[in-house]
Amino acid sequence: MNATIARAAEKIRQGERLTPSESLQMYVEAPLPLLGELADLVRARKHPERVVSYIIDRNVNYTNVCVARCSFCAFYRPVGSSEGYVLGFDEIFRKIDETIELGGGQLLLQGGHNPDLPLGWYEDLFRSVKERYPEFRLHALSPPEIIHLTRLSRLPIRDVIDRLVAAGLDSVPGGGAEILVDRVRKILNCYNKATADEWLEVMRQAHRAGLRTTATMMYGTVDTPEDRIEHMVRLRELQDEGGGFTAFIAWSYQPEHTELGGSEATGLEYLRTLATARLVLDNFPNVQASWVTQGGKVGQLSLGYGANDMGSVMIEENVVRAAGAMYCMDEVEIVRNIENAGFTPKRRNMHYEILGEPMFRQREVRRVLNLAVAREEGDTSVPAELANYPARSAAEKRRRNGDNFFSGS
Ligand code: SF4
Question: Measured from the CA of 75, which atom of ligand 1 is nearest?
Fold first, then answer.
């Protein structure tokens, strides 16, 4: 082992912070077993009770219509596409009913940048959810979606956040970060949807508004190890300002059906990235295992490489599945994976407060062996309430005029 790696390892053992260059050197050169050992040490320091948490929530994508057109995304459909959809409020209520039936208390609600859904649509949706389900939580709208709404509404970030909070927003998911380096974002065609600074500014404003948020990283497209470390360091700096991030979640790019193509990073690279993140992000209380992209076994291994949380029980998934990955674990499976790895499973909420023992051990819960989708194939219904909001795109104006010739792409 070279002297720099040995020194950096000693710093971790002493509870000291790695510099960016030490972080990079560890990421690129440290033997994987050493990274795992150190990440596990940090995990044990932060979570000595050997509890691994998870949440029962539902991942709902309210629309797949998107003007951003990121080159790594297999989920979106362009405006006017016959495969584009917007979920109706009633459909979302049904999904909430099913989530509650499975013991869940939250929706993770994210979607495309649909120009025909103004800020008022989101406010009405959130209000109507909170009226029907006052205790139910909305973990909704990643920073690029909030930037999209600032552009549509011509309001500053903080005003959009305040209006969403007044309507019922509880917390902000860390999606759309990809890699927070503008050189990479330009190549991936996601610079225009939100620059690195814009993504971070939304999170800064959300934290100042009292919201807790997560942070994510999607690696393995055109990014270098330097880019990944820069991403982690920028998150660490923002966390130093206010500490509003609850958790960090990394996953590898899923290339199938995307414009960008390429191949997927290996499970070993995932473990190396996860462990390094646990070392660099010394001010993040929690690190999630991404079994949705890595599968249950690597997800389980993650618990020895710094992760202390198994993320969400899967009820519905649309985005990762569109890009070729499809792993399904219901609560029984997640708990089995956690216990087989020697940890104690506990249910949590978005704030990572422990809610209790597994739900299925307290009452009968239906098994979920197949993931639901946003919409059944062939369902092209358009929600009636959309007529309450002005159409902005030419395609939507034409559709409302009964002229559908535009809907073939
Ligand atoms: S990743 Fe999100 S913003 Fe980008 S094209 Fe897909 S749906 Fe749109």
Answer: 6
